[in-house]
Amino acid sequence: MESQDNLIKLQEEYYLVGSLREDAKIRYWHTSSLDQPWRNYYDNVLLPQGNYAGRICRDDSGFLLWNFFTEKVADRTSNNLMPPPKRLHVDGDGQLRAATYEQFDQRVIGLLNCRCLRPLKDNRSESQQFCQTDRSTLRIASEAGFQAYVFEEDIDSFCMTAKLSMAGVGKCGLICRVDGESHDGYYFSLDLLKGLVQLRAWGTGPLRSGEHMMQFKSLQTGNWYDSGPRELRIKLLAFGSYIELSINGNVILSLANDSFTRGLLGFYVETAELLVEDLQVQRLAPPTQTDEHLATG
Fold first, then answer.
1. 86-90 and 96-100 as β-strands: parallel, antiparallel, unpaired?
2. CB 70 within 8 A of CB 52
3. Are 9 and 90 in contact (CB under 8 A)?
4. Most Cβ neighbours (<10 Å): which of 11, 210, 218, 266?
5. Whole-prediction pTM value?
6. Residue 276: which of 287, 264, 267 has the closest Cα?
7. Contact 175, 185 (CB under 8 A)
8. Is the Cβ–Cβ distance between 151 and 282 less than 8 Å?
9. What is the distance between the alpha carbons of residues 228 and 137, in angstroms, rounded to a whole number?
10. Strands (E), 5-90
11. What are the pLDDT digits (tens) for 138-154?
12. Which one is predicted more confidently, 68 or 2?
């Protein structure tokens, strides 16, 4: 693997990768010739807020993007982590994209049984659970209000891939590392029509903590564009404290957070119906280094 300037050439186009200190995102610019002006696409963000100081190297498979990540954008002097790299590629419109590093395939140690889902919260007043299974297809729904459906087993490090299709005017999303009793964990809100995903950490404070009993933290937000907004393919990766969400093959969220390390995995719907196809959940061997070691050296 050899180091590379942040100026690269792919498919007869030049791409310059960098970050603006003020917003801590990895961005890029492009041009057909170095003596021509640099141009932007409508969205030139490669990696969302918290990712900065991107650097490119090259191996036998192409270009890799490395960077640092911090939860505290205003203070980047301590506890910065270097997440796994992303593979750079160009899509059909000439836009530069980041994809999941393929070497995660070498960390697979087994599969999670994902044939059936159950309601996260058992509401005995409902006579129907709105959950049906058919081979590799799951159909979940909620006629009114929020309902989450999870697999039976807890899991820590994993890679989940699926094709999602939504019907109705409501909402849908993903959940992972959720506690079966308190329901604390990570919640990914997916707006398929607007192309917006928001990751939040929901937690429970100590008893008698009053207004601090419900602990809510917005971790990261990302956008994507799709001409067929009600259908997409997702890849959710959790590797130690590293969390990555790809949509249609492109990394949309990339961050590190250790609020929750293990729990239930599944989907949620809110006044909507969600069809989950081509579903697979791979168990991954966890990282061999702790966050503290990565942050302090």
1. antiparallel
2. yes
3. no
4. 266
5. 0.91
6. 267
7. yes
8. no
9. 20
10. 7-10, 13-19, 26-31, 45-47, 51-59, 62-69, 86-90
11. 888 888 788 999 999 99
12. 68
Torsion of CA 84, 101, 153, 271, to 10 degrees: 100
Question: At residue 209, does pLDDT exceed 90?
Answer: no
Overall average pLDDT of the 189-195 stretch: 91
CB 116 within 8 A of CB 133: yes
Residue-range domains of the chain with CATH: 2-100 (no CATH), 109-295 (2.60.120.560)
**Residue 210: predicted pLDDT:** 62
Write out the two tokens for 237.
């990766």
pLDDT at residue 130 in the model: 44
What is the Cα–Cα distance from 219 to 260, expressed in whole angstroms?
13
* Torsion angle defined by CA atoms of residues 70, 20, 297 and 285, in that order, rounded to the nearest 10 degrees: 60
**From the centroid of its chain, how far is CA 251?**
7
Burial group, residue 34, by CB count within 10 angstroms (0-12, 13-18, 19+): exposed
pLDDT above 60 for 294: no
CA distance 119 to 268: 9
The answer for residues whose C-beta is within 8 angstroms of residue 53's C-beta and 6 or more apart is 19, 67, 68
How many CB atoms are located within 10 Å of the residue 8 CB? 19
The pLDDT value recorded for residue 74 is 72
Tell me the three state secondary structure of residue 293: helix
pLDDT at position 269: 93
d(CA 148, CA 269): 6
What 53-57 contacts at long range (C-beta under 8 Å, 24+ apart), as own/partner pairs, is 53/19, 54/6, 54/17, 54/18, 54/19, 54/26, 55/3, 55/6, 56/4, 56/5, 56/6, 56/8, 56/17, 56/88, 57/1, 57/2, 57/3, 57/4, 57/85
Q: What's the whole-number mean pLDDT along residues 187-196? A: 93
